[in-house]
Each structure stands twice: as structure tokens, then as C-alpha cells.
Amino acid sequence: MHSQQDFLRDAMHRLNLTRDRFADRLGIRRRALDTWLLPSDSSESRAMPDMVEKFVLEILRHAAQDGQGALAADSRAAQPLAERIAFEGKPQLLSVSQFDRDSLEALFQVADIMQPIARRQKVSRVLEGAVLGSLFFEASTRTRVSFGAAFCRLGGTVCDTTGFTFSSMAKGESIYDTSRVMSGYVDALVVRHPEQGSVTEFARATNIPVINAGDGPGEHPSQAILDLYTLQREFSRLGKLIDGTHVALVGDLKYGRTVHSLIRLLSLYQGLKFTLVAPSSLEMPSYLLELVARQGHVIEQTQSLETGLHGADVVYATRIQRERFNGESIEGYAPDFQVCKSLVDAVCKADTILMHPLPRDGRPGANDLSTDLNYDP
Amino acid sequence: MHSQQDFLRDAMHRLNLTRDRFADRLGIRRRALDTWLLPSDSSESRAMPDMVEKFVLEILRHAAQDGQGALAADSRAAQPLAERIAFEGKPQLLSVSQFDRDSLEALFQVADIMQPIARRQKVSRVLEGAVLGSLFFEASTRTRVSFGAAFCRLGGTVCDTTGFTFSSMAKGESIYDTSRVMSGYVDALVVRHPEQGSVTEFARATNIPVINAGDGPGEHPSQAILDLYTLQREFSRLGKLIDGTHVALVGDLKYGRTVHSLIRLLSLYQGLKFTLVAPSSLEMPSYLLELVARQGHVIEQTQSLETGLHGADVVYATRIQRERFNGESIEGYAPDFQVCKSLVDAVCKADTILMHPLPRDGRPGANDLSTDLNYDP
Amino acid sequence: MHSQQDFLRDAMHRLNLTRDRFADRLGIRRRALDTWLLPSDSSESRAMPDMVEKFVLEILRHAAQDGQGALAADSRAAQPLAERIAFEGKPQLLSVSQFDRDSLEALFQVADIMQPIARRQKVSRVLEGAVLGSLFFEASTRTRVSFGAAFCRLGGTVCDTTGFTFSSMAKGESIYDTSRVMSGYVDALVVRHPEQGSVTEFARATNIPVINAGDGPGEHPSQAILDLYTLQREFSRLGKLIDGTHVALVGDLKYGRTVHSLIRLLSLYQGLKFTLVAPSSLEMPSYLLELVARQGHVIEQTQSLETGLHGADVVYATRIQRERFNGESIEGYAPDFQVCKSLVDAVCKADTILMHPLPRDGRPGANDLSTDLNYDP
């Protein structure tokens, strides 16, 4: 039931080929491939000949048999995805380190399949009767509401707890007790907590699914997975591969848990170049630098936005988490340390992708992604 | 499938006639009309002759053809209601100024049809799978819960965000960003915010439905629509018309957004008399006085409750919004400035309707609607 | 459709007999009874002879006719449970004093029937379309989420309001007004409020179901009912009866509303012995001591944990509600006043049941149930 576009994209993805190399492999011109990949309601869209479909299917079959192609292993994986990414044997998501490249790609395929539900083109009530416990001990709108809305969209319901004041933990209750009690009421937990490692403590006390929605400066796996998924879809549209790409990470790289999770996920791919742009007091922790370097990626550090953004395929900007170092002055983070339209126009390529996990400090003078980029595609 | 009662009420309503004038028009006695209008399970209810139904239908048909009667235009309106009241082309509700008299009456007809659902006599799951984002940056119980409960009642689910502290806006995020992000998760937004115009900013950033649940001293359209709907149903019961009625508005007319929205809606009708009763520092803003006067209504201002309430068909009392002017002393608002039973008995008519948008300050000595009126019908 | 195990347990329960006495009554060995009571998937489980079933059914029939057995009255009770426990004629739950022993046991039978739904072995949508208003004016996780999750599990939806700041009561609104308004929106209310008697005020203002989820130092009926239900199921497993048992209540017996509600419920049974272990400033209020004594139970008070726990069948420990007496020093509550593993091993029996309503102060040095008992069954 897939469209021609989906079929071709999936094939390029499984074979890990760019548009140019895929066109070469099929012996066709890149331009023909481009027209086949246009949305079917576009006036320039063309149907591909039946023979092309047969050829592609044969290539895929051989790739799977030979173990050729990055995702071939995936087709043979009889083990369910939930088990492959389990945390200590339980269906819990605490860190991006639970993923390898295959299981990550498998997750993205599930996400692809669920897109029509997210867009309300299809209805699913698969979570009918299920209750999600949402425990946010720290400020959040987007993460809390996105999990809540997703759970509701699939037919479930959500019980929210926000803040410490209104919870029993204000009465001195341990994470262990809170976790045990909540798991008696609900079917799954999404937890955000200001202390690194705390969500893992929640998870170890129970057997129900627990998702880490951010544990202080620790991890934020769902955000990183989402960012990589977005990146991959944009690259698929542009006919680019994540392998070998150049990513500039900008802003507070010391406390930004999103960047920490994202760089670990990107490191699962091959031959990337990272440019880290941060003031000296907010540099990426060295344990992460070593981890990334050990996997053979190139890392460059700079305090200059112009230098850092030059030639990047992806610019990932983040907010300075002021709440993490109240009072300290932020050296090296001058008012002109801002990703704005004039800078992007000057040093970036036409197809450079700009990303930001949000929230963004949109006030004048903030050292964050400038609002004059709002209408940039 | 409508009852005889609904049929007759709707006819009077469309022709904009009181019971007396409707009886005259049909050449019947008022008493006969009254018995036909009783609930069908009442022992004194009588069935109207078939001929009456035919006569009424003919009158309605001619009224529609001649453009006679306030609502005749409505019958010809091929355009859906949502489009007629759209805000900048989008299905959003930000101000009562989106309504004219016809579209307001059309909305009330929808409300009539939905009454059995609100009373749980009928079940509707029309919002199955839909998610409402409820963003309240200011204290609220009744507005928040009423929207939430209504959405749930129709099969949808709700994701709540209350207060600034627990939202990403505490991290400096702009209204634009918050609105864009939320519209990615939910299907509709209800927003309350302390600054006038802020909800319009939310609405302009997105294409999903946005409802203004109060923007500081600005507007509160849903409350005003509800108040007018209540008034109209009570008047229909009493055989009165809103045209030509006498409405006394009492309390904080300067900051009370509910009163601001209500007086604008009432001004869509003909020949009303408004008596505005407020201490000198809390008078109705002059731009509203001018707007109402331009539409040909009579306005009287007074600081005396006795004078102001005398002869009114409707007394609409409001709370002084202490949070809007902390510290300022409130001149001219003496402890006896209170709508209480003895005052109502002394100066109001037997069928005067008392209304209050709530919350009401029920503490002793508060300058608000007195609790000794709790058992007044 | 009940299993053999359910059938036998229910029979013992209705006849109010221990396993030993039930075996005697049937003329069988206790060991045979034990094997019939094992889960049917246990390798040592045995099917009981058909004749036993017939014998038991006959005993039950006679017991019902003779009015013999504690629950015989229940079988004859034609009146629905909701009416038998009504508060001032309305389906509201405000105090454990609404129960007698029969209605309490009848409620437990309903709970037994609903267990498979709570465990998600069966699905019920009995509350489809219904909306619960949850009003918590005081900190709560477990009570709020447990009611919310239960309501959702049965197909309903929940509108939460937590804290005073975000409610209209911060604007001076009375309990009366809040209750009237909320009952216009929702189908049932669960209310927690810091002032004793306040929830009753909520209930009196409306006809919809209202449940007291804790009114300051007043009552907490749902917690007490749940505790007793748990106790009864454990006793049923152990073949013990609540009549004649020995219960030690430990901790803050002055302000602990849970203990207040629980001791009143336990007093509905026969011949209990209560040992109350509390520092002198936190003793059980005298009105409760008198109420319990009047019903013929034995009460002992002590400040020594060793003395108090000795020989108890049940130890019910509670947290010291620090928030109730900020600043006061707590005399007689030394750091060694803690129920810990070494104490339990020294003075309790092998089958002593340890209970705690939670939350528990799990911080080192807290005078609460020690975390070294976490793995005690």
C-alpha cells in the first residue's frame, strides 16, 4: 500500500545510498529519479516503469542475503525491538546508550508507520484502557504535553503530577517508594527529575515501562531520538546520508542534556565531523569527547561562530540553561554570540539544516537562535 | 423531531416576537399559546391544532422570503457558521467582535441542539481521538474545567498546563514559539494569559483552533456568549425580548473583561438601556461607552446602587478584581456597596434576573453579590 | 464461573470461620483444605470432591436462613449498597461512620469482583462519557492519582485542580460557590482540603457524588477502607479472622487522619486489642479512645515500641506529619523510635503483618518505617 515515493526512499535508506549513487546503481539519470520521488499530486511527478520496481526489489533481496547494506542485519533480527533496546531486561528507556545503529533504524521504521496516526489520517485505539503516569519534578511544557498527547492519541489516558510541592516527595518520600506506589496505579511512567541518575532509580524500583524525560544534566533520550529522526527525514528528502556529514553543535554544551544524548546517537554512524561552538566555561564534558573520538569521528572545538558554522550540513543550536548556573557570569558569551540570519546567510550552505530543541530564549539580546530566522525553511 | 414547544419557541425567536405579539399575529389568545408552550409532561399542556403549525410555517416562509424578521438572513446563510465567525480566516475565537446578531443566534441554536449531551441524556463521541491543549497562565477553575469537561464529554482528551513556573515560558520562550510547538501536539488550544492581546498573538502563530479564555483586562468571549445565552433562555421562558430591555451592570467595570465582552454582545440587539453602576475609579472605559452609544443604546452612569438597579430587567453584578490594582485604595466603594436581598427586594421587579459571572467574593464585608441571595431563583 | 479457591474463601468469609474451624465444620483435615485453596496452577493444588461443594452450599443456605454468620444479613439486604451507606440521602463518601460491618463487607465483595479490572485482565467502560472533578487543595500524589487512574481505567476522564493558587478560591470564593459551579461541569468530585469538615461543606452544597480524600486532621475514609480490605485479604490467606485480633498502631496518632478512620472501621469487628504506640504529645484523641472502648475493645497505650509491638498480629506504622506542627519540638520521639528490621525480628511473630499508609519518610534518621524492611513480604 506504500506509495512509489515511500518505496524508493525506503530502498535508498536500506541500501544506505544517496540519490546520486542510487541513480548510478539503477543506471538511470538523477533527474528521472527526482521526478519519481516528487509527491504524487505534484504536476511534475512521474510514475516509474514497472521494471524499475522489479530491479529495486531484486537489489534489496540480494542486499539482505549478502548482509550488504547497513540495515540488512535488521531484516534478520527475529528478536522484537523492545527486547533489543531493553534496560536491564525491562521495557524502559533511560539512555540513548540502549541503542545501536540497527535498533535505532528499526525504531525509525516504526515511527514512519505511525506517522499517519500522528497526522490524524488514521485512528488507533491501541492504548484503550491504559493509564500513563506523568511525573515532572521540573518545568516542562513540550516534553510533558507531547508524551501526554501521544498517549491520548492512541486511546490511553494520562495522570499528571507536576512539581515537588504537590507531590508526596515533599513529605520526604524516597524515589523507591514513589515508584513502587505509582506502578500500582498506572501502566507506564514518564519521569523528569532535576538530579542526574534519579530516573534510573525510579526505573529500577519497578517492572512497568519507565521513560526518562530528562534527568538534570544527564540525558534526554526521547529528544535526541526525535532530533535524529527529523534529521534523517530531511536528509532523505535532500538525498544526503548521515554517514560523513558535518554537524555544528552550538551553545551550552556543558549542561545541555539534549546535546549530550544527540552526540552519542550521531556517533553510531560513520565518519562524522563535529564542530563544537561554546564559550570556554560551557564546553562539552571530556568523557563525551573521548567517547566520540574513540568511534573515529573528527571533533573540532572553537569559540567563533563564523569558524564553527562554516561548511556545516547541520547547525544544532541550544539555549544557555541559565537555571543551571544562577549568578555565575558567562565569560566569552558576548551579545553577538547569536545564530542570526545575516550570519547564516554569510557562512552556511543553501541546504544547511538549522535545528533547535527549544525552548528558545526569544527575548531581545538573548544568546540564542535569532527570531529573524523564523521564516527560514 | 422537535417538540411542539421547541417549534413554537423557535418560531417566536426567528420572528423576534414576544408571546403577546406572537399570539396576536396568530389571532389566538395568549393563554392558549401558554398551554401549548408547557412541557409535554405537564398536566396542563395542550397539543396545538395542526392548522396552527401550518399557519406558523407559512409565516416563517414569508418572513424568510421578505427578509422580514431579525433571523431571516440566517435561513439563507449557506456559509457554515465556523466560517462566518472566523478570525482572520481561521476557526478561532478571540473576541466577541467576531459575531453579528445572526451568527450569534445561529450559535445559540447549536447550543440548544447540544443541551441533551451536556445533560448526559445523549452521548456523543464526536471528538474521539482529539486532544485539547489547555494553557492557563493565570488562575482559573471554572473556565479551565468547563472547557476540559466539555471536551471530554464529547469524547476527546485534555492536556493541561497551568501557571508560568511549570511551563517553558519561564525559560524565556516567546508566545510565537510556544504556540507553534503546542500546535504540533494538540488539535485545539484554549488559552488564558494575563496580558491583553497575548492570546491573539498565540492564535496568529498557528492554524489550529484557538479560544481566548481571558486575556487580562481584554476579553472573555466564551463567558459573555454563555451569559447572553442564559439570559436569552430565561427571557424566552418569561416571554420577553432582549431588544429594548434594561440591563444594569454593577461592580468593577474598568478591569472586568467579562463585562467588556458582554456589553459588546448586547449592543448587537436593538434599543437597550444600560445602567452602569461603579465607583468613580472603576468606570467602564470610554472606548466601550462610545461603541455602545454609536449603536443607538441609552447609557446611564451612577454610583448609587438604588438608582442603578431601579427598574432593571437584568442586574449583572461582578467582583472587584483586587489582583488588578494591588495596593491602590478603592474610593467610593463603601462596605454598603453590595447587592443584597434587602436591596433587591426594595428596588427590583419580581421578574428581574440577577446574574454574576463568578467567582464571587463570599467573605463577610466583601463588595460583591451577597450570599443572602443564594436561594433566590 | 468462580474458581474452587474463590468459592471456599467466600464461604469461610461468609461463615466468619478460620481455616481450622472450617475444616472442623466439614469434618476434613486442615491439610486437605489447604491443598484445595492453593492456586489452580500450583502443582500441589487438588480438586475438592463434588460432595464437599454440595455440603458447603447447604451450610451456607442454612446460615442464611438462620441469620447465622456475620454476613447472613447481607444476603437478605434488598436495599442497594449505595443507599445503605448514603450520606444524608446522597451517594457521597465523607466518613467511615457511614459504614456498619455488613455494608463494609458488601463493599469488599464489590472490590473482589472488580479485581480483574484493576489487574487489566478484564476491561470495563462503565464510566464512558463521565467526568471526574479532582480538587486537591493540599499536596497529594497517591490519593489523587489512584482515584484518577481508577476513573480512567473504567472509561471515564478526569479534570484536575491542584493547589489554592490556581483556583478561584484564591479570589475569595466560598466552598459553597465552588461546589455548585463544579457540579455543573462534572459527574463526581474527589476533594482534599486542609480544614476538618470542609469536604462535608462541599458535599452539602451539591447532589452529585462527593468523596472525601482527606480533610485536614479529620478523616480519610478511602485509605482506611483500603487498609482494612488489604488486611482482610491477607488474613483470609493466613486463615485468620479480624475478630479478636491484636493491632498495634504506631506513630503520630494525634494528627494522622488515616489512623483515625482505620480504628473506627476496625471497631466494627468484635473483641480486638489495640496497642497505641506514640510519643506523649501525639497520642490518639480521647473522643476516639472512648468510642473504641464503648464498643468493647481493649486499648493499651505505651511509648515503648518493644512493649507495643510484642505479640501483635498487625503493626500499622505512620509518618509524623511534620507539616501539622511546624516548629514545635517533638518530645519523646527519639531517633531510636523507628520500626526497623532488628526490632521486628526481635518482638514480632512470623506472620505479623506490617502496614503503612505511605508516604514514608525514607531519609536517614527519620522516625518512620525503616527502609531495611523493604524486602520483608
- Distance from first to last alpha carbon of chain A: 30 Å
Strand order of the largest sheet of chain A: 7-6-5-8-9
Count of folded domains of chain A: 3
Characterize the main sheet of chain A: 5 strands, parallel
Low-confidence spans of chain A: 68-76
CATH homologous superfamily grouping of the largest domain in chain A: Aspartate/ornithine carbamoyltransferase
Please state the average pLDDT score of chain A.
Answer: 84
Structural class based on helices, strands and sheet pairing of chain A? alpha/beta
Shape of chain A: globular
Total strand segments of chain A? 9
Total of helices of chain A? 15
Per CATH, the class of the largest domain in chain A reads Alpha Beta
Specify the oligomeric state.
Answer: homotrimer
Work out the radius of gyration of chain A. Answer: 22 Å
Largest interface: A-B, 35 and 28 residues
- Taken as a percent bin, the fraction of beta residues of chain A is 5-15%
CATH architecture field of the largest domain in chain A: 3-Layer(aba) Sandwich
Question: Helicity range of the residues of chain A?
Answer: 40-55%
CATH topology of the largest domain in chain A: Rossmann fold
List SSEs of chain A in N-to-C order. Answer: HHHHHHHEHEHEHEHEHEHEHEHE
Write the layout of secondary structure elements.
3 copies of one chain form a homotrimer.
Chain A: H1 4-15, H2 19-26, H3 30-37, H4 50-66, H5 72-76, H6 81-84, H7 101-118, E1 131-136, H8 142-153, E2 157-162, H9 175-185, E3 188-193, H10 198-204, E4 210-215, H11 221-238, E5 246-250, H12 257-266, E6 273-277, H13 286-294, E7 298-302, H14 305-309, E8 314-317, H15 341-347, E9 353-355
Parallel strand pairs in A: 1-2, 1-3, 3-4, 5-6, 5-8, 6-7, 8-9
Helix pairs in contact in A: 1-4, 2-3, 9-10, 11-12
